[in-house]
Every structure is written in C-alpha cells, then in structure tokens.
Amino acid sequence: AEYVIKNIQWTTGSNFTVERGRQQIEELISTWEVHESWLHWSEFLHEEELQYSKRYHYQVRWSIPTRRKPIPRATASVYFVIEISKIKPATSPVEVFFTLESSRLIHRPEQCRFREKWLKDIIENKTILMERL
C-alpha cells in the first residue's frame, strides 16, 4: 500500500496572521503519526523581511514527560517558516517548510512524511552527549 502524504489547506497571504500561522502549524502537526506520549509546545519566534517575501519563524518543541521524569532531560525542536510572497497575488497560499534541530535539510509538508524517529534520534543524541560530559 502506498502512503499518502497528509497536508492541510494553508491560508492565503491576505488572510495570514502570526496566530493563524501558529494554529495552522498545530493543524499540520495533528496529521503527523506520533505516539500520544509526545507532548509539544509551539511559539512564534520572529519575522524576517526579505526583498521578495516575508518569513515568519516558529519553533515547536517536543518531549516525552513521564510520571517518573515530568521534566524531560532533553527536547527536540522543529523549526517552521511560513513565507508570504510580495510578488504572487495575495490570494495565493503561503509557502511552508520546516527543518529539524541539528539538520539543514529543508522539508516541505506536501512532499514529506514526518517520522517520529527523527524526534527520538535528536533526544537520544542529546542524552548521549550529556552523559559523556
């Protein structure tokens, strides 16, 4: 069976607000296949003015708190950018891409299946590093 990448209907440039962007990122995350033990928190970081577009940067921080360790030793961050073109019509949907902490690879929601393993690997690598220090 072939996997169908889940995406959402992104807002247009004219309807975009910082809070709407955060809500849509949450909506996208709800389509990801991650175990219910993962908790996340999203926040707006900053706005970036470019020649032909405006970029809005967000961070989503992930962890797995447990009863024994309610404050996790490490978290994993996913960084989102919502880009609004100054050239395309305001009725065009915003462009969205994300990167994982410690990675330069740029993912597009409509082209990529999110993997829970990516979050696990980030936390595992941080934990190993802390134990070595």
UniProtKB/TrEMBL annotation:
Any one GO MF annotation of this record: protein kinase A regulatory subunit binding
GO terms for cellular component: cAMP-dependent protein kinase complex
InterPro entries associated with the record: AKAP, AKAP_28
Pfam families: AKAP28
Name this protein carries in UniProt: AKA14 protein
Origin species: Pterocles burchelli
Gene name in the database record: Akap14
